[in-house]
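URGENT: need a sanity check before tomorrow's submission.

F., can you look over the Glutathione S-transferase family protein record below? I want to be sure the sequence and structure line up before it goes out.
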Amino acid sequence: MLTLYYARPSVYARLVWLALLEKQLPFELIPVDLSGKQLEPEFLAVNPFGHIPVLVDGDFRVIESLAILDYLEARYPAISLLPTEAVALAKVRMVQMVAFNELLPAVFKLLMHDPASDQVSAEVEYAQLRARTSLAFFETLLADADYFAGEQLTLAEIVAGTIVHKMPDLGVPLTRYPQLSRWSERLLVRPSWQQIELSAEEWSNFRRRMRVMPKIWQRRRQQRMTALTRH
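Structure tokens as predicted:
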């Protein structure tokens, strides 16, 4: 059976979890405490970089979300989440890469911003711009289709669909992107999305945690340096 090391708040882990559900594969979830447990020897033996998610399939281990998604597609193709037609495939890959390289960095910066603060830094303004640019790109690419690849739910939905619906909570409303908003609403009613979705309390706790994340990252870097020097 497949085993997924994950943490519920992690968007990187939730999208792999979502893919496993959509592909209807049997799997076991192993939660990882991200308060520092991921840098202890037990988990470093699973992933020496101390990151989640990690997928274990028999005696083979895969790290990094996009690599895991590609592995699942190649290894378990019965329910496909990746089109083969050239234009559709290019659209899916563009959505994946824009979500990872543009939208997610913007989301993390917005999560670290205290919404109660009256001051908006240049970094936050730039994050808002990156987010709006990503959403506008998605809106144009989606057009009037049900999914980015047309009628087929794909890895584009798996990756971007775990992020887009949270944008209004981060000060970036979806009112300018009506097609994308309807697309997101359709995804949220799917049983798989409902299973992985954070509760209001989990989301609130995650947002509070992200605001103190710079200090946590500094502590984790020191923990990792200590862990690496032991090997």
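My own read: The chain has ten helices and four strands. The longest helix spans residues 86-112. If you see anything odd, call me.
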